[in-house]
Write a structure and sequence with these properties.
This protein starts with a strand and ends with a helix. The protein is globular. A hairpin with a 2-residue loop joins strand 8 and strand 9 (about 165). Helix content is about 35%, strand content about 25%. Strands 4-5-10-6-7 form a 5-stranded antiparallel β-sheet. Helix 11 packs antiparallel against helix 12 and helix 12 crosses helix 13 (about 295-305). It has 3 domains: about 1-55, Uridine Diphospho-n-acetylenolpyruvylglucosamine Reductase, domain 2 (2-Layer Sandwich), CATH 3.30.43; about 60-180, 2-Layer Sandwich (Uridine Diphospho-n-acetylenolpyruvylglucosamine Reductase, domain 3), CATH 3.30.465.10; about 185-305, Enolase-like, domain 1. It contains 13 helices and 14 strands. The chain has helices at about 15-20, 35-40, 80-85, 85-90, 95-100, 105-110, 115-120, 130-135, 155-160, 235-240, 250-255, 270-290, 295-305; strands at about 1-10, 30, 50-55, 65-70, 70-75, 135-145, 145-155, 160, 165, 170-180, 185-190, 200-210, 215-225, 230-235. The chain is of the alpha+beta class and about 300 residues long. Bound molecules: flavin-adenine dinucleotide. Flavin-adenine dinucleotide (FAD) binds near residues 35 and 126.
Length: about 300
């Protein structure tokens, strides 16, 4: 069971930072609490009593999002359900509805923040590969005396390893800022012990923009999670495909490439096979979302298992 001596609900960033700075060692920030609550149950951390919990869910600055200059600024309290139901987010972040639909269940999606998922830094966190593909940065704030000191860090530098990030003890993440990709087709593949209410064993994301001829890849973004200590962007495959006419052979060639990236200590052969199928399925599903003719209908059938 999780208990705490004090439960704070600040409504502004300066208030939250002041409480956080003065909180006794062992205190925790909390947003949706969907990671912290299971962590504190018997069998993981066991019964836990925290000196203080600082609940960020009422902080005004962390709510909502805005789209400007080709980027989406997602407040730290944006939850997974928003990526499913908000039409503007669906249009600008075309891979996120597919990521969200396989994320937990309705109740957890309504609570779970993208930022909590990124800070948790699980190698198999569903939110990290899409955000890597969208060139995400985290906006972070701390108190410097009484002034707010802000910094921005690329997600690829923020996640250091399983459960490890660059977040410093006195800091709070205020936002995730990522590319806006209207006009792209998006997709997300995930495998775990079962299909819903499960943390991924591995996951893959694709975002594709096709040129006007409907045959040439104008831009592509690909990333993988669950194959090593941190999720990875697949720049080499992106380079292979960008500017090329999409064919079944090219997709087969591309999907064979990331097998060497599987660095997990467990179930390596299984993950290699999964990853190959994932990349193929991710590309084909994203092409379907683009509404272009597919290179080979038989492959689609196989990829959609
Ligand atoms: C039943 C169930 C199913 C799940 N399914 C999935 C799944 O399919 N895929 C998946 O990836 N995960 C899944 N999870 C894990 C969890 O829901 C996610 O990681 C979620 O996104 C965490 O967000 P949260 O807001 O609940 O984080 P919290 O539990 O509130 O916090 C998580 C961590 O982030 C820190 N934190 C939160 N906000 C901030 C901030 N603004 N600044 C600094 N630090 C912050 C907290 O201190 C804590 O260390 C599941 C969990 C459960 C219980």
């Amino acid at each position: 069971m999780l208990t705490c001596d004090k439960y704070h609900m600040p409504t502004s960033i300066p208030e939250a930072l002041a409480i956080w700075q003065d909180a006794a060692e062992g205190s925790r920030l909390v947003a949706g609490a969907t990671d912290i609550l299971p962590w504190a149950r018997e069998g993981r951390a066991g019964d836990v009593n925290l000196p203080a919990m600082i609940d960020l869910s009422r902080v005004a600055e962390l709510q909502g999002y805005k789209v400007a200059n080709g980027r989406v600024h997602l407040g730290a309290n944006v939850v997974y359900q928003d990526f499913l139901t908000d039409e503007t987010l669906r249009q600008h972040l075309p891979c996120m509805p597919f990521c969200s639909i396989w994320f937990a269940d309705d109740q957890i999606r309504a609570q779970a923040t993208l930022v909590g998922n990124l800070v948790n830094a699980s190698p198999a966190a569903d939110g990290t590969p899409p955000m890597l593909a969208l060139n995400a940065e985290l906006e972070i704030v701390r108190l410097d005396g009484k002034a707010l000191k802000r910094r921005t860090i690329a997600l690829s530098d923020f996640v250091k390893g399983p459960g490890k990030t660059d977040l410093q003890p006195d800091e709070i993440v205020t936002a995730v800022i990522c590319d806006s990709l209207p006009g792209y087709g998006g997709s997300f593949q995930k495998v775990g012990q079962r299909r819903s209410l499960v943390i991924s064993s591995a996951c893959a994301v694709a975002c594709i923009k096709m040129a006007e001829d409907d045959e040439t890849v104008e831009d592509i973004r690909l990333a993988l999670g669950g194959v090593g200590p941190v999720p990875v962007r697949l720049d080499d495959i992106e380079m292979l495909l960008r500017g090329k006419r999409i064919t079944a052979d090219l997709i087969t060639q591309a999907s064979a490439m990331p097998a060497g990236r599987v660095a997990s200590r467990t179930r390596q052969e299984y993950r290699r096979t999964v990853v190959k199928g994932f990349i193929e399925a991710a590309i084909l599903d994203a092409l379907i979302e683009c509404g272009v003719p597919l290179p080979n209908a038989a492959e689609v059938e196989n990829a959609h298992v």
